[in-house]
Amino acid sequence: MAQQILCEVSTCTHWAGDNHCGASEIYVVNHHDKSKATDSAETDCKTFEVR
């Protein structure tokens, strides 16, 4: 399992600087009810919370 989660969304409450995510876990879902994403543009991070 990944030890380091990177994120560049500095407006997120979990953003820990230097593009690191400080959330204890992350939740990523497929866009538009697709069952299989084929690239990152077809996914969303549901862990995001506005700072």
UniProtKB/TrEMBL annotation:
Question: Which domain of life, per UniProt?
Answer: Bacteria
Q: Start and end of every DUF1540 domain?
A: 5-48
Stored InterPro entries: DUF1540
Q: What protein name applies here?
A: DUF1540 domain-containing protein
Native organism is Alkalicoccobacillus murimartini
Q: What is the lineage of its organism?
A: Bacteria, Bacillati, Bacillota, Bacilli, Bacillales
